[in-house]
Amino acid sequence: MKQFWNVKAKDSDTGEVMLYGDISSSTWYGDEITPMQFKKDLDALGKVKNLNIYINSGGGDVFAGQAIYNMLARHEAFKTAYIDGLAASIASVIAMAGDRIIMPFNAMLMIHNAWTVGSGNSRNFRKLADELDKIDESINIIYEQRTGLSKDVIKTLSDAETWFSAEEAVAKGFADEVEKERVIAASISNDFFTMNGLTFPLERYKNKPMIQPIAILPMIQDAGAMRIMTETITTSPETTALLLIDGIPLNENRAERQPVSDMKALQELRKKINS
Fold first, then answer.
1. CATH architecture for residues 5-274
2. Of the listed 89, 92, 165, 261, which one is catalytic?
């Protein structure tokens, strides 16, 4: 199975876990080897004081996500989860392991009920439906504990497949901070949803995410002016695509802060706009 995580030490006190793309290319159900390797990678960091978790994922295997959540939640370090674009489905569960969850203002978080495909007779499908209900309950408990929302409210949000903007996620308790000075690139084209350099098929989701419409902005060096522009420019409500340039120029400090792939995506964006 292709490894979908990257764990590394930033320094003696800080570790980094990067989860970009699908959470597992195959199920972890009954798999004892793969989760053990993830735990070994995490344990190899040693007793770090801080653990930064970077997420840009449309979801994936529920068993992999639950295992990762549990391993991260048990970790003794102070955990900061950065949603670098999208935390949807089981990826949103993993984000809940953060002691602090931070989202750029145009990042998104989505929760919904577990789904699968199956075959067989009526008894098989009734059993499968019961199993999915149990999975939903185990996931919703995590949301309840993190947000303080009631069981009924979480169930209603999950039943509806709810997409949250960063501000909505903070208001509901799914995140702690909106990082307004940082922006990301996103677009919807045909049957695909692109967020910060990664593309996710919309067929996975019942509802299409509503991307916050903002005009294409020219490159400027004044980060303060960029923030003002992003907060004041409006476009028609029919706009479904978003293309942004990061408000903070790429520099050494930012390079230390973000995963390499995030920087690469932004650099590619700048090349396209300049060409």
1. Alpha-Beta Complex (3.90)
2. 89
